[in-house]
Structures are given as structure tokens and as C-alpha cells.
Amino acid sequence: MKILSLLTITAASLGLVRHEGEAPRDTTPPAPRADVHPGLKALYGTPLQDFGLDAALFDELWRVWTGPARRAAARASAAGRRAMTLERYGLFVDPERGSEVPAAFAEHGDGRWTLNCLGCHSGQVDGAIVHGLGGNAFDFQLFVRDLVALRGRRGLPLSMQELGMAVFPLGGAPGVTNAQGFSVVLAAFRHGDLSFSDEPTPLGRELARAEVADLDAPPLWHLSRRSRLYLDGYVAKDPRVPMQFSLGLEIEPARVMALEPAYREIWRWMESLEPPAWPHAVDDGRAEMGEAIYGRACARCHGTPGHYPEKRVPVDVVGTDALRASSMPRAFRAFMAESWLTRFGEVDVELDPDGYVAPPLDGIWASAPYFHNGSVPTLWHVLHPDDRPAAWRRVGGDYDVERVGLAIEERDQPPRGLDPAEQRAWVDTAREGRSAGGHRFPGRLTEEERGALLEYLKTL
To answer: C or N: which end of the chain has fewer Cβ atoms within 10 Å?
Structure first.
């Protein structure tokens, strides 16, 4: 899908509305625990951008649900509906925060919740909350669609941003987002100094040819091992680079720049993250055999615990879905190369990367689904390229200990005629940008070797 029709995404920010007759609420956010990292505190208490809502609207989202979900919510208690709401959108509450606000939102003194980085960069796996995990369940598009529907039902005015986001492909399934599309659109209306542009910028003129693609966020605990950012490694590390996601048509440059201290704290938090340890038993003998296989078959690209080569692999070699590699406009990288976000050229930007960087595999057991587009549900499927499902959906929040990844239901194609929310739960690898093909290197191994390699990957 082209981006040209999506120019309204970053228009006005969402408004907050108190329902008539609603009692005033205490809008002072509770303090996180004293030992919470300052960067995590910044994520929980600093409005990094403008998209959000208030608690009253969150607790009424169930009113726009349909079918069995709507009927179950109508019968449930307030606490039960809150739990159902969290589950529907792939959200969770962090007990270390000291608040019942979902971790994906910052809460600040005017009573407003605004989306933070944790929607896409934290999640739950095998029953545990893991910060820095690529958000494997957050359904950004479903959340926005329901929020817009609720505001419409209540007769609340919709901003241009809400209208744009209602039709923008924010993510084709739970756990993926079109983060690249956000980057392109948010930058298209700015000069390099972040001032607004009255005329179409070079990037703005490229929007007609730009595409959007579903992306599965990589684990943040890789950051400390890498020298460059993003799937293609096009830009060197710097805490200003992710500030691109704080841009917007109504956010003045000075306000964006004033967020740099908060981003520095967030950056330090990201650099401090460690991969979670596999929480189940390991067959040490098989894992030792798998370590030798890994050294022969995988380490050249993915590295070892003591060495990471940060190797970019051409798309025609790795063979995974090429849409992300081919669709980012060169004009976006050119904007980044000369902007405040890269210190006006001090941070290296590569304009024409030719593939994807093979990631380190620390904590890979926790980072399902796999590949940059989240198309492969388990490590067993990564190692068995001929057996990857054509269509699949998660079974609740269950974890597949044997195959190492998401517990799934699989079919030859997604079922039809489902409730829209149920339909979205299905990952269709026949869709553009969602191919589960490529990375066929494990097919060269015997079944015994693949089993041993799977055992070793649990230990990383």
C-alpha cells in the first residue's frame, strides 16, 4: 500500500474528553518503585508524543466490540472487563510501576495517557513480563480502530490524526507495526533542523512511491552489542535517532529537542538490558552437540556470545521477504543524514544498504515470532523451512516449550467470515510483506543436527 494517501496521519493530536457528569479524577500519576531504572521511569512518566486517551475511554472500549466478546464484557465485572481489554489489545500492567496503567502508556499530570515505546518493545513470554522484548502481542491497529469507533459512537469530534490512523495500516496482525511508514510520514513535513516545511520536501515528493511493511521489533537487549540501528543497519547508534518517533505536525521543534534528556535516560536503560534466561530444563549433551553445529552453520553471520560480526546479508542471499529492504525511500535516509537527529551529519548514515543485518541471537528463545516481519512462529519452524505454516494464529498467550516459540493453531489459509478482531489474529504469509520464505540454510542439516541446534539456541 502506498503512503501518499496517509498524509493526514500526523495532523492534530487526540483530544481528551471528560464525560458529562463524570467526577473529577486525581490526575497525579503514582510514583514507580524507587529502584526502577530512570529510563523506565521516563517511559512511564514522560509524554514522548501526543497520541493517547484517558482512562475513562479505555474502560469503555468494550462497548464497540461485537459478537461473543461484546456479550462476555457486558456480563463481566469492571475488573473482568479491564482484564479482557488488556488481553484484546495485547497489553499488560507492570507491577514494578506502581500503577494500573498499561505499560504501553505514559501517564502524566493532566490525566492523559500517551503511547510510549513499550507497546512495541516490551511483552510477555512464557508467563513472564520481559522489557525490551519485541512486543509480540500489541495490536496497535485494533486499538486505534476501536478507540475511533468509540469516539464516533459518543459523538466526540475526531481529529485529522484519528481519522488518518483509522485507515492507516498500523500493523496487519498483533505484534507487528508499520514503524517504517511512521518514520517516513513523520519526517516528510520537516526540514533537517526539524522546522516545519510549507512546501513539499524531497521526502514528501517520494511519498507516492513509498510502501508500508509489517515489522516485528527486534529485542532491545541487542542494542549493547550493535554499532548500528535498524534491520538494515543504515544508521550508526545515537540516542537522538529514535527521537524521530516524537515528530508530528503539531509538535514544535523546541519541544522535540527538549526531550533529549529523557531519551538519553531511555537509551541508558536500553543499553543495560540483558536477555532473559531460558526458564526450563536443557539437555546438556544435545546442547553441546548443537553448539558445535552452531559454530559451523550459524556463527559466521549471527556471531557467538563473545563475538558479533554485525554482518549485513544481501536479500538475494538470505531470501526473506524483501519488502522492508526495497520500500524505504532513499530520500528518508538522506533526510536523516543531514538532520538534527544525526547531529547534521556527525552520525554516519548509509544511503543504500543492500540487505538485512543478521541479528545476534542472545535470548532468541524469547523473541518469537521470527524473521523481521514476524512470519514464523517458532524456532522449530525456522529450522524446518519446508514446514512453516501458511497461516497461523496464537493460542491465547501460551508458549510452545518443545518447538520454542508461540503456541499456535495453523491452517492452509486463514478462515473467513470471522469477527474483524478474530480475523486479524491470523497471520497470512501469502500477504505482501508477510512471506515466511527464505533463510533456508537449516535445510542442509540432518534432523538430528537440527534438534541439537534447537537445544543449544535455548541456552543463548
So the answer is: N
